[in-house]
Amino acid sequence: MKSFLRWAGSKRSVLRHLRAHWPGGDVRYVEPFCGSACLFFDLQPSRAILGDLNEELVGTLRAVKNTPQLVLASLRRFQKGKRFYNKLRSTSPQLLAEAERAARFVYLNRHCFNGIYRTNSKGQFNVPYAPPKKCVAVDERVLLSTSEALAGVLMVHGDFEETLARVQGGDFVYLDPPYCTDKRRIFSEYMPGSFALSDLDRLSGALHRLDKLGATFLISYADSPEARKLLKPWHQRRIRVRRHIAGFGCHRRHAFELLATNKARPRGEVFDDE
């Protein structure tokens, strides 16, 4: 199952590497930087916790889970085109009902440039209009299936440590924080207060606590000196990924990311992109 959201930095192209670490069964899945949650939707675990600092994202997941028909009803009323996009983008989400607010988020996500979520210093979404050439409309069947997939999910709005505070021994935790390096930020600013270099020490401490607790974790991060230092205590592998953030396909490039886990590499796993 694919995520219903477009997302810059999505792990859709490397899902085969990620799912090899999933233990399966009735293990609870936890993701504190969920974004489009493409690994969650690919695995469809029966129990999960999804967290993110993005309040609109978390609110959208809750609305799709609880009232998908109301979200769809709002989406059907929306018009096509740049003029309506700009009008909806300038509408404060705080003025809308929960289902309408979720529909606004989904619509802007589908019609914005490259599925990027970026805000100004006031926290206002400011990505320009530039819908994909294909599959602009939201598939209603996918949204309804998404609602079913989210049935056993607890959604948490907050810092990654707020989500990780709910982890128990035996849980599987996937972490994919926004990538920052000392030289540059890999992607454009997500939102005010989002993950930064200063948070790497907190993230390192969280990984050690997860291991001590008896949870299994898998983390992905752009290959960089910061990542190598952060992930040095754990089992690491480097994989090649294609960046999807450039404006035109010819400018999109391959890069390397590190995957690290506190458990041994899955038997028989082949990293043919290394």
Short structural summary:
By secondary structure, this protein is of the alpha/beta class. The protein is built from ten helices and seven strands. The protein has a single domain (12-261), classed as Rossmann fold.
Structure description:
The chain is an alpha/beta fold and 274 residues long. The chain has one domain (12-261): 3-Layer(aba) Sandwich (Rossmann fold). The protein is 33% helix and 15% strand. The chain has ten helices and seven strands. The chain has a seven-stranded mixed β-sheet with strand order 3-2-1-4-5-7-6, with helices on both faces. Residues 246-252 and 270-274 have low confidence and may be disordered.
Q: Distance between termini?
A: 26 Å
Can you list the strand order of the major beta sheet? Answer: 3-2-1-4-5-7-6
DSSP helix count? Answer: 10
Number of strands: 7
CATH topology: Rossmann fold
Q: Report strand %.
A: 5-15%
Identify the CATH architecture: 3-Layer(aba) Sandwich
How does the major sheet shape up?
7 strands, mixed
Low-confidence stretches: 246-252, 270-274
Find the structural class using helix and strand composition. Answer: alpha/beta
Helix content: 25-40%
H/E topology pattern: HEHEHHHHHEHEHEHEE
CATH superfamily: Vaccinia Virus protein VP39
Q: How many structurally independent domains? A: 1
Q: Which value, in Å, is the CA radius of gyration?
A: 18 Å
List keywords for this structure.
274 residues, alpha/beta, Rossmann fold, 7 strands, 15% strand, globular, disordered C terminus
